Every structure is written in C-alpha cells, then in structure tokens.
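SEQUENCE-TO-STRUCTURE ENTRY
===========================
What this section holds: a protein sequence and its matching fold, both as plain text.
Tokens: labelled as protein backbone structure tokens, with as many entries as the chain has residues.
Question of interest: how does this chain fold, as expressed in backbone structure tokens?
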Amino acid sequence: MSREHNAWFQCFAGCDERYDLNEIVYRCRRCGSLLEVRHDVSALAGRSPGQWKELFARRWGAPMGPYASGVWGKREWVLPGVQDGSIVSMPEGKTALMPAPRFGKSIGVPDLHVKLCGNAHTGSFKDLGMTVLVSMVQQMRADGMDVPAVACASTGDTSAALAAYCARAGIQCVVFLPRNRISMAQLVQPIANGALTLALDTDFDGCMKLVQEVCDRNNIYLANSMNSLRIEGQKTVAVEIVQQLGWQPPDWVVIPGGNLGNVSALGAGFEMMLALGLIDRHPRICCAQSANANPLYMSYLKDFGSFEPMRAGKTLASAIQIGNPVSIWKAIRALKESGGVVEQATEEELADACARADRDGLFTCPHTGVALAALVKLAERGEIVSKDKVVVISTAHGLKFPEFKVKYHAGELEGVAGRYANPPLELPADYDAVVRAIRSRIN
C-alpha cells in the first residue's frame, strides 16, 4: 500500500489508539469510544485541488468497472488498499441533484435542490456505506480471515442495502428488525435477497443492543453505522453535491437524522474537501428529526450540554424512529463545526411537506418530508434567507412507502388533515362530466 493510500481506524474521543482497517473492532479498546476512519491528508495533498477535481470528473463518466460507482470514483478518500477484485458494487452514487423551484419559491428559498440519494439500487442512501463495508469484508475473506456472516439492526433501509450487497458477494446476511414497525416494501427486500430476517418484539434500540451482543460473541461482522467504514461511503454525498454545483458549496444542507451516522458522514465529507483545498467554506448543516423521536433536538435546546436517550414514539418517518442514536457525539461535532442547527417536524408537517414537494415532480419519502418541513420552519423564521443556496438530502425513494402516500391523499393518516391531498375524482364515463373536471383544474 502506498503512503498516498493510507488510512486507519482511530479513537473518536482523542486517544492515540489506532487499528488497521481489516481489524474487527468498532470501539476503542482503551476508552470505549466509537472509532472513525482517518486518512493521511498530508499525502493526499500531493495532488492539487485542481488535480483532484479533474480526476473525479474523469471517473464520473466511467461506464463500467469500479469507477462506474460514485463511491469508488473517490476511492483514495474512502477505502484505500482494497483490491478491485474485492469491490462489491452495484453502481451506487452519482444520484441526481434535482432543482425544486416551485416548492422553493413557495417558501422563499428559490435556489433549492434535492439530492436524490434514494435513486439507488436498494432505494436509499445506505447503499453508499454498504458497498464500502461489504467490500472490506470481501477483502478480509480473500486474505484468509474468518468472517462467516454480516449482521445489522435496522428500521428497513439498512437491512435492504446489507442484504443486497451480501447477496452480491455470496456472504450470509442476518438482519434484526422491529416486528410490525417497517413498511412491507422494506421488509420484503432482505427476504428476497436471501437474508436471515429476524422480526423481533422490540424497537430499533432493542434490536441494536441484541445485534451487538450476537456479533461480539459469535464472530459475526457488525454493519451498523457504529462501524465507521459505513461513514466513508456516505460522506461521498457531500463531495457529489459540491461537484454537481461546479465545486461551489451550498450555504445550507438539510438532512433527516435518526441514528445520526448520515450527519457525521456529511460533515466528514465537507471537512475533507476543506482540508484538501477543494472548497473554502463549510456549509451549515441542519439535522431534522421527527418530533416523536427527537433526542438530538432536545440536546440542541440545551446547547448540546448533555444528551439523554429517550424511548422513540411512533412516527411516519419510521427509519428515524430512534431514541438512542449510536453516532450522537459524532453528529454533535459535525453540527458544531458547521455552525449547524437541529429542527423537528410533527407528523402533519412532514406529510404536508412531502405533498408540497411532490408537486415539483418529486416522490418523497416521509424522512425527506421531515427535512423539508424543517426547511420550511428555518425559512419562516428567517434563519435561511432567499439568497441562500440550499440542498435537502432525500434519503430514500418514495416507492418504499406506498401506504404513506395512498393514505395521505385518501385522508386516512391519523392526525393528518392532508391539506395538499389530491385524491382521484370518480366520475361517470361521460364527456361533459370529464370536461367540467378538467376545466375546473386548469381555469
């Protein structure tokens, strides 16, 4: 491995403890803190900012091979040392940065884009992290290490991504899911991909506690975001956004947060671009939480002076129904470094925000609705102003949540009035009735 391609695990809390990336370790053995992947930035600085931009632009157009992936097109910044033959990819990344002018103008933020991370193989941004993690496992197995299976706790999207990538690699996948708390579209994905799917009588936090114990005692590799290899893939979202904006960072990025690995990943991407001179300022990050599962928001109200886990209440944004997020302190650091904020959204606010944004041609998931609703609040109180360039991260595809969409427009979501509902009109097969209906809409 060349010096330019050097990275390692290091204690997040500041210990000097370091571990090789092929070690099965998730927390510092000295102090118990989470780990993070560190890169030899001084060696990476051997390429100028312009050279990195040119390299990434050239790889963006690759039709096949590792560089068909937006993640592996930035491999030096992500997971150096993995051989091409061990890379497990279903070309992820390179997702659209979609303008949302109608929705943006309606809230006084005309320069608004939505990063469609749900336009991925398994329908969520989790693919970005799983390609990195499963590729590392594949490399470890190729090197003779005993890694018989990979497991995760999930509220839906993580399990779908892990199951697909493990199926691609021929590795046994085990997923721990809270029974009756995820959509059928999400549940069927790991089942279809051959994962051992365990639907447990507990919530996500209970699944998370159990999967850690099972992995620790049975030599199974843990794939949740406490494994910082996941963060390395997810941080490429930040790089893609800036690249798609002509290497000009936005003023704000708004992202929904549950277990909070996505927030820390976003911060890590912007920090690396700053360190290597590709950008000259850090966008402000807003982490958006459901009002029914808002432990980070409650900590933010106390200036992050303390954090207390909570029992997450039921929310339409089921993937972020998490009361004890693993990456809490990493997320707080990312928010502080960016001058960021935390906002919350009620069930009605997130559902209405989805419906409004869908009028711009989007098809948003409820978690993206949380971020959109938070954006509305920031704009209403003048924290985000009309001159700001704003990017909202859409974390999953709306097609994963058809029941949410159908019930909203049918007026059947509990506690949600559905101000923007657009149900079908049931009419007789009569010309005059049809024309009257058309004219009522276009006049």
